[in-house]
């Protein structure tokens, strides 16, 4: 690496591949990809070839002012407008071909540039739907592959689970809980409410931290938002869909501020089980009389330790809600793939066609492209686990302008639409 000639050569290759990508020059790009990685990054802008290919479609200042003067002076006659749109169409097609070629050659979907944007973020910002979808689909393929590889154990691998757990701490944790070395990728963005590589939001650290209870939120010891009042609308809708009438049996995993449990209680369930692991939340529940409410059973501990006992006792529920904190997607997937089957009554109470399962759907919600990738993955995983899922879109107001994030370490929600899932067994 100390050889200056080598450094110049590398820099030249990087600039050539970025230029070919920005020009959507497929033959040149094909050539360069023989001996240059599709994942080089410009040292100044942080652009990868994918960023360059997509950002090249951003109208320059000249085009922007031309457009606005056309609009102001009313000069956009039909012919001219058609010429422009035909030219634009060709540009978009060339860009899509370039992006496809880069993905075929191993381009990483979620590398960040100097502005903290992934290629998909740029496509989204510029309203380039086709390119955006290409990025989302590449993200889904990559993340599904990584999660399947994570499950895969080579034949003859005699490692014990303990050894595996030790090893898990070593690599960079990827977005949906797999270990993968990827330098600047927006990997851990597909996490829920927690930040990438942030030790404070590992579940054991969270469970040992002291919580602060405000009127309208719970923060952990590092000022991460555990639960916030703005989510009430989402809890109310989920509770309504999961528990439409009184006299049903409900299980809620993760009490938090008790918002959804309060709504469940008000519906008069015949039994209401709550699993909660944090000692401060449990303390608060005692003070608020939760242990004595009608039909309520509080299980103190992590769901991972409690659920096997419930299954053993053959406790069945008509509705189950899952909303924990500082856990990876892997945990949610494990819950619905392995445990809901033993807990949810396929009959689901009187006048119903089966039990319902819901969860807080907040993974990757600090970046639209990550939310869209994650949503496609969760839909596939739910289907594979035997669930039909109905999605409802709920608009979310601008939380920034409402001052919701003041004093909170990290905005875990920046999007304007929430996708609310309600799942039932297929068939
Ligand atoms: C986001 S809050 C739940 C908010 C709740 N849905 C409401 O309406 O207020 C998450 C809760 O899950 C709890 N939790 C985190 N990890 C857990 C685990 N492994 N098992 C059980 N509870 C857990 C946290 O202590 C916290 O109280």
UniProtKB/TrEMBL annotation:
Q: Which family does it belong to?
A: Belongs to the class I-like SAM-binding methyltransferase superfamily. RMT2 methyltransferase family.
Keyword match Methyltransferase:
yes
- GO terms assigned for molecular function: protein arginine N5-methyltransferase activity
Cite the RMT2 domain residue spans from the record. Answer: 199-427
Its assembly, as annotated, is: Monomer.
Q: Look up the signal peptide feature and give its range.
A: none
Annotated function:
S-adenosyl-L-methionine-dependent protein-arginine N-methyltransferase that methylates the delta-nitrogen atom of arginine residues to form N5-methylarginine (type IV) in target proteins. Monomethylates ribosomal protein L12.
UniProt keywords, alphabetically? Cytoplasm, Methyltransferase, Nucleus, S-adenosyl-L-methionine, Transferase
Give the UniProt entry's GO cellular component terms. Answer: cytoplasm; nucleus
Q: What is one Gene Ontology biological process annotated in the Swiss-Prot or TrEMBL record?
A: methylation
Fetch the InterPro entries from UniProt.
Ankyrin_rpt-contain_sf, Arginine_N-MeTrfase_2, RMT2/GAMT_Mtase, RMT2_dom, SAM-dependent_MTases_sf
Spell out the protein name for this chain: Arginine N-methyltransferase 2
Q: What class of enzyme is it?
A: transferase
List every stretch annotated Disordered.
Answer: 59-91, 153-182
Q: Where is the composition biased (Acidic residues)?
A: 158-173
Where does this polypeptide localize?
Answer: Cytoplasm; Nucleus
Q: Where is the composition biased (Polar residues)?
A: 63-74
Upper lineage: Eukaryota, Fungi, Dikarya, Ascomycota, Pezizomycotina
Species of origin: Zopfia rhizophila CBS 207.26
Q: Which PANTHER family match?
A: GUANIDINOACETATE N-METHYLTRANSFERASE
Its primary localisation, in coarse terms, equals cytoplasm
**What EC number(s) is this enzyme filed under?**
2.1.1.-
Q: State the superkingdom.
A: Eukaryota
